[in-house]
Design a protein that fits this description.
TIM Barrel; binds N-succinyl methionine; binds magnesium ion
């Protein structure tokens, strides 16, 4: 494929209910979609969904910055590279430091276009072994415990395989105790702090040990592997990294220093689905459990995440909830649903979604097409 054009489409999707984490509250999602036009085509034949948020609060990338780096540097480099396959995208973009979410969106669009042309699925390309994957749900921070328990009960009734609670200082031990009492000892429960604690909080976090959690996700700052290792040594709850892992090397180093015994793999955060698979392979060799994270994706990203989560090292339920957990209307005709705690891995070619062009048109806030020239 020779990249000859790109569509950058920005959409605004209202959430069905606000989602609060230790770094902020969201009521809508501002998402950049990347359309891949190759060999002179006027319309994209593949789409990528960028997981960056509007503001650099989860990670350093943010939507405006992603759009700029793609337009100024990444897309021209891909166009100049001539005939490439999706597997070359990561190498061609290698000279540009960082910007993993922008790179991942481009690689994802290339994969979609290439696989559709070959009539193959992402599931087949990645080598998934299952046709259904267990579905977990991520539950935000609430103003009070009653509202939290009502929300959790709703998700239990929906059949989710496990619950993840967002925590922060002042919203941790008591919410976890009450939710454990509500759901019983057999249901999987885990927590995610999005970097809200410090090394001085280790004794406090060890109080979570009595609740039999599957894991505690990213309690400490992104660059603080040693505080994660100190917590792992002090606590019986497995420590899991999310924000700290942006590459294969970082995954390997974090395992070496004992900072993590479980990894949340998010393709967008690590630069794409192909690197995500490499991290999965490494973790499998090293005996580290992995699961697929979520970034409040539309049906495009959800479909691709299901294919990744079907690899056999994904031994824990992912944050791959039903589309309706976040959206009243998705931009795809075949939104992901949860049945008996499972979601079906898509079987259609490419990433496996079917765009709903009417909904897509309604949620679009900006659409820019640009043509790329090899010598640009
Ligand atoms: O897509 O189900 C989802 C969201 C899962 O909690 C989730 N993601 O740190 O893991 C995480 C967060 C990142 C996004 S918070 C706005
Ligand atoms: Mg997380």
């Amino acid at each position: 494929m020779h990249l000859t054009g790109l569509e950058l489409r920005r959409i605004a999707m209202p959430l069905v209910t606000p989602f609060r984490t230790s770094f902020g509250s969201q009521t809508a999602r501002d998402i950049l979609l990347v359309g891949w036009c190759h060999d002179g085509a006027d319309e994209p034949t593949g789409w990528g969904e960028c997981v960056a948020m509007s503001e650099p609060l989860y990670s350093s990338e943010f939507v405006d910055g992603v759009a700029t780096v793609i337009e100024r540097f990444l897309a021209p480099a891909l166009a100049a590279a001539g005939d490439i396959s999706a597997a070359d995208v990561d190498r061609v973009l290698g000279p540009f430091k960082g910007h993993h979410m922008a790179k991942a969106a481009l690689e994802m669009a290339a994969l979609d276009a290439e696989l559709r042309a070959q009539n193959r699925t992402l599931h087949q390309l990645l080598g998934g072994t299952r046709d259904h994957v267990p579905s977990g749900v991520s539950v935000g921070i609430f103003d009070n415990l009653d509202d939290l328990l009502t929300s959790v009960q709703g998700y239990v009734d929906d059949g989710y395989a496990r619950i993840k609670l967002k925590i922060e200082p002042g919203w941790d031990i008591e919410p976890v105790r009450r939710v454990r009492d509500l759901i019983g000892d057999d249901m999987g429960l885990q927590v995610d702090a999005n970097t809200a604690y410090r090394r001085t909080d280790i004794d406090h976090l060890c109080r979570l040990d009595e609740f039999g959690l599957l894991l505690i996700e990213q309690p400490m700052p992104v660059d603080d592997l040693l505080s994660h290792a100190a917590l792992a040594a002090a606590s019986t709850t497995p420590v899991c990294l999310d924000e700290s892992i942006e590459s294969l090397t970082q995954a390997s180093d974090a395992i070496d220093v004992g900072a993590t015994s479980v990894i949340n793999i998010k393709p967008g955060r690590v630069g794409g689905y192909l690197t995500a698979r490499r991290i999965h392979d490494l973790c499998r060799e090293r005996g580290i459990a992995v699961w697929c994270g979520g970034m409040l994706e539309t049906g495009i990203g959800r479909a691709a995440n299901c294919a990744l989560a079907a690899l056999d090292g994904f031994t824990l339920p992912g944050d791959i909830s039903a589309s309706r957990r976040f959206w009243a209307r998705d931009i795809v005709r075949d939104p992901i649903d949860v049945v008996d705690g499972l979601v079906a891995v898509p079987t259609a070619p490419g990433l496996g979604y079917d765009l709903d062009h009417d909904v897509l048109a309604e949620v679009t806030t900006e659409r820019r097409m640009f043509t790329l020239h090899p010598g640009q």
